[in-house]
Each structure stands twice: as C-alpha cells, then as structure tokens.
Amino acid sequence: MTIRAEHEMHRRRLGRNVGLGVTLAAFILVVFGLTVAKVSQLGERGAFAHAPPGVVAR
Amino acid sequence: MTDIRITEVPKEAGFGDYFALLKPRVMSLVVFTALVGLLVAPATVHPMIALTGILFIALGAGASGALNMWWDADIDRVMKRTRNRPVPAGVVQPGEALGLGLALSGIAVVMLGLATNLFAAGLLAFTIFFYAVVYSMWLKRTTPQNIVIGGAAGAFPPMIGWAVATGGVSLESLFMFALIFMWTPPHFWSLALFMKSDYSDAGVPMLTVTHGRRVTRGHVLAYALLLAPLAVAGAFTGIGGPLYLVVALALNGWLLRGAVRIWRRDEAEAEADRYRVEKGFFRFSLYYLFLHFGAILAEAALKPYGLGGW
Description:
The complex is a heterodimer of chains A (58) and B (310). Chain A has 2 helices and no strands. By secondary structure, chain B is mostly helical. In chain B, helix 3 packs antiparallel against helix 7, helix 8 packs antiparallel against helix 11 and helix 12 runs antiparallel to helix 14. Chains A and B meet through helix 1 of A and helix 1 and helix 3 of B.
C-alpha cells in the first residue's frame, strides 16, 4: 500500500525544486544570450583570431 | 498497546524563503540606481550585456543581504521589524544562509567580470565585502556612525553600473555615489526615531540609543544641510541639466523643511502625534532618492532630442 497523503512539506519541496529548476534554466538562457552577444560583437578578424594567417582569406 | 507520538515536523523552507534572504526590496533600489548609472554613462553597451550586468549586480547585492541575515540572526530575532526574516523565524538554517550568500557572491562577481569588465567585478566584490564585513560584522555593533560609513555599500551600485559601461570612474559616477552616501544617514535616523525600542532592545548602538533622540534630530538636520547643496550641484555635472535642477531644487527645499520640522520637535510632541512628521520624512526620503535618479535618467533620455543637459 502506498502512502498518498500529501503534507504541506511536500508542497514546499515541490515549490523549491520547481523554483530551482526555473532559476537554472534562466541562468542557462542568460549565459547563452551573453555568448551570442559577445560573439556577435567580434569582427571577422576577432572571430578568426585563433586561425593561422591566410586561413580566413581562403 | 502502541504509543503514537506526534512530534513537530521541523519547518521546511520554500523557494520564497530563500529568495527573501536576498532582501528583494533593497535589491530593487540597487537595480534602479545601477541601471541609471549604466544608462547615463557616455558609452553604448549591448542590451544583452547591460541586462546581464544589472542582473549580476542585483545578485551580488542579494548575496550580501543573505550574508547579513546570517551574521545578524541574533539581533534580527530581537527586533520586531526583522523577527520574521527566514533565519530568526527558524525556516532557513544559518548555515544555509551563509552558503547561499557565499555561493551567490562568487557567481555574481565572476559572471559580472566575464560579462563586462574586471573593474566592475572588482567594485562589486568590494561592495559585498564592505556590506557583509565592514558594515555588518564590524561597524553595526560598535559605533553609532555605523550607517554613515556603512551607507557606502548602498552607494556603490550606480558606480558599478557606470563602470559596466565605461570600465572606470568619473566625476559623474562619484556624484551618484555621494548622493546616496549623504542621503543614507537622515533616511535611517528618521526611521530610528520612530522605531523606538527596537535598536536598544537588540543592543545596536544607533545614534538614538547612544546619544539620544535630541542629538539624532540635530544630526538629521545637519546631514540634510550637507546633502541639499550636493544634490543641487549635481545639476551642473555632465549628467545634470535644467530638468534635474528644477527637480533637485523642489525636492531639497522639501527635504530641508522636513529636517527643520524634525529638529524643532521634542519627544512629547512626537509621541502625541505618533511620530507623524518622522514617518512622513522617512517615506519622503524614499521618493527623494528615486526622483533624483529618475531626473538624471530623464536628462539622458532627452539628450538625443537636444533637450537634456545644458
């Protein structure tokens, strides 16, 4: 037999878990958005700064 | 026969209780002043970088709030105004508040550094240190000048916002710092005047406890007299202008009038009308700061149309 009664404690735990999940998802979105913004700010030279000279031209 | 013992289930914190550790109301002021600092700076910032910057400045402020609640749990338990905070109420354990405060401080500083620049991140780290260590752990319980020096912690956010955009400090960002720094003492001392026994019960050496209410009334007036010319002079910096000047003149006239009224009153008079003037001054001081920064923002918003500034 399973215990089905739900205590207020369970609701609080669920709220906490959902809140943490939403916070982490928001953090991922912020880091992703920031990455896109940073990369879009780089010029072609900046974006290919790691490549050997001439690679971009080809 | 079987005995059934019902023991009280320990209180379990919800998400909102952890959020309350971050002092959301203080965070809202930090967000607003930091945003103004960022928007009025003479540099353009990518909107996503600006949003991230403000977010992590707010998170850093929240983290210092959690550290403050961890350290001050004993006095928060005594004061009526703070006894329902998550740690003194027994909902969140002190160790959790400490862990959350330290973790969020680290995240906020590192992320601000990565998103914007190291100077802004360093300034945020110093602000957290100043609020949690210099103010909460050291000054608050040792000197009646606690809120005067501790007020610097609340004054840094517009400087950090400015640093996010420019990577440095300027006369304008120092002015915004000075405005909040000088505003803090009369704001908190007017609160201390009508909070009556809270601070003395908790053993916090507020000016009202150590030097009495008469002296505190004098200090409110003295700081208002120092604040008013500073606030008006801001009209002639790079972020001021005619609109700011009009707003500052009106608000500071009102501030001085309120401070003089507080100074003239004695305790019998204040008791008789339940500290009506002191409470009114405290409420007004919130609008005072909001409207000054609103006017600074309006000047910057009008500039593209040739209207803002001189």
